[in-house]
């Protein structure tokens, strides 16, 4: 398996192409913008675009769907039906799917948005906007912030420290680094210790 990174300059969001070299199939995660480089990667690598995984329904993560659907006929997975209407395979809760010859774990992680979903392939987590290097996703209320933090602790920080995090924005990181250095998490922990 190979993971290729593409930056969407329109929303400064990350798009990932995951290629299964054995089956010559590919998955795209969060197609915010489809560029010639992405198409060339699929076509030049002789990959069949098998599916698209959506972490959440924000424009900078889904705007490229329209272009992809004009060229290919991929399966589309996400927690929001409105991503692609009847072409969306709606996934909820936690579970596994198999696509492009790869078993993918998925976990609902609401807080940043109600439909936030993270995906695990091997030892790599694709976290969308739930967590990125040094910070957690924005929220619209204290309750959403509490839900997001609780889910990060339960579902992301329960992974091995060496698990790689490929976020929706910014550089890659890992679970161990975020436990120690994520400013939003560390500040919250120190504030709660002071208040006791």
Structural description of this entry:
The chain has 196 residues and is of the alpha/beta class. The protein is 28% helix and 34% strand. The chain is built from six helices and 14 strands. The strands form three sheets. Strands 1-2-3-4-5-6 form a six-stranded mixed β-sheet, with helices on one face. The longest helix is centred in the last third of the chain and has 15 residues, at 142-156. The chain is globular, with a radius of gyration of 17 Å. The N and C termini lie far apart (47 Å). The mean pLDDT is 94.
Distance between the termini: 47 Å
Contiguous runs where pLDDT drops below 50 for at least 5 residues = none
Strand content: 25-35%
How would you spell out the order of helices and strands?
EEEHEHHEEEEEEEEHEEHH
Structural class by helix and strand composition: alpha/beta
The strand count comes to: 14
Tell me the major beta sheet.
6 strands, mixed
Strand arrangement within the widest β-sheet reads 1-2-3-4-5-6
Provide the helix percentage. 25-40%
Query: Measured on Cα atoms, how large is the radius of gyration?
Result: 17 Å
The overall pLDDT average reads 94
Count up the helices: 6
> How would you describe the shape?
globular
